Amino acid sequence: MAQSHPHVLFVALATHGHFNPGLHLANTLSHGGVNVTFATSSSVRHRLPKLPSSPNLSFSFFSDGQDDGFKLGNDVVPFLSQFERQASIAIRQTILKSKANGKPFSFVVYSLLTPWMAEVARSFHLPSALFWNQSAAVFAIYYHFFNGYKDIIGNAFAHPCIKIHLPGLPLLDSKQLPSLCNPANSNSFVLKLYETHFHVIKQEPHLKILINTFDDLEHDVLRAISVELIPIGPVLPSLSFFHPTNSMDLKPYIGWLNSKPKSSVVYVSFGSIAAVSTAQLEEIARGLLDSKLPFLWVMRKRSDGDEGDLVSCREELEGKGKIVTWCSQLEVLLHPSIGCFLTHCGWNSSLESIACGVSVVAFPQWTDQSTNARIIEESSKSGVRLRMNDDGIVERGEIKKCLDLVMGDGVEGESLRRNALKWKELANHATTKGGSSNVNVSSFLDFVCNGGNR
């Protein structure tokens, strides 16, 4: 029976790549007429300068014993295992407390790497849905990996020169597969979390799987497997939040960008988790200097808090570009002075580049990023991928070459920029009224309001 006042519990992992899209999806659902409580570690509250404001959106922050959050250099395994232990207890208490206060939950949405939430939801007889905040291509690869193709995928890593065929996917080599599928992968704990997700999907074949992509971008992949995937992306903050009447000009890096010509600046950022070696940072720095292009570089501090010695040419860099330890990425990508994005190709960053119409120089590091780089280079054709040398380093000459190509006036650079603008329009259309993702969100809200009944 349908509930008159649906109340959704949305649980997200406390890392930027998970809580950011989760929070924005929770906000979207709350504006669709349901009450949503967003639950995650209190470390998130400390890191967010601003929370979305909606009368139907509330927050439940809990301590997971790691209130400073995940930091560069931390081991991801103890972080994830501690989050699971503490969060599963806190979430159960939240469900009981909400019921005691006369505001019982009627539905649960949980994000990637929290598969244990499926059992928590079942124990309270609550219907649930998974929010897969990676691409459909990555979902399909893991699906095949855990359903009979593990050895074939492993063979691709053993023989890097070969390409493998997985049903419904283009030919792939080891440089286009998630690094967790590599038999030499040391993050077996993380891979086990993915495996548990697919075990849950097998147990619950009608589980709703909301996926942060859109139909035009991954049309064929979305239909390539027997599991129903519901594309609802790109899941981003409302672009109206970044209207120039806000406090953009008060931020020093925005003032610096305002002083630069249109499409002249390289934006450089490698996310919040992946650690780039000192030797590689030096090559990036020299490649940027050799390109003679202005740049905005988010250079994060090391775990000891010191960033001054990361590169030997810091003074030269600051004479040509601007270095910051943090910025509002979507705000930067929307700035007219940005000409390209040198990125690790985390899925959020990849989607933001597409939604903002910015060409990419792809520098994937680990997990899903190599697959995302393939989407950028070969599907959307809005960027190029850097190639490593035999020592696993991308040299300065390669960086300069790719920046020159993407930012230059040549035929290939112009084609990349045209494609980037085309995908910007398609992404925007998907999330506006009547667009494919917008329709899917509306259908999901109807499903929730009907008590989670098919």
UniProtKB/TrEMBL annotation:
PANTHER family: GLUCOSYL/GLUCURONOSYL TRANSFERASES (PTHR11926), GLYCOSYLTRANSFERASE (PTHR11926:SF1542). It is an enzyme of class 2 (transferase). Pathway: Secondary metabolite biosynthesis; terpenoid biosynthesis. This is Mogroside I-E synthase. The keyword Transferase applies. It comes from Cucurbita moschata (Winter crookneck squash). Its EC number is 2.4.1.350. The keyword Transferase applies. Belongs to the UDP-glycosyltransferase family. Keywords: Transferase. GO terms for molecular function: quercetin 3-O-glucosyltransferase activity; quercetin 7-O-glucosyltransferase activity. It catalyses: mogrol + UDP-alpha-D-glucose = mogroside IE + UDP + H(+).
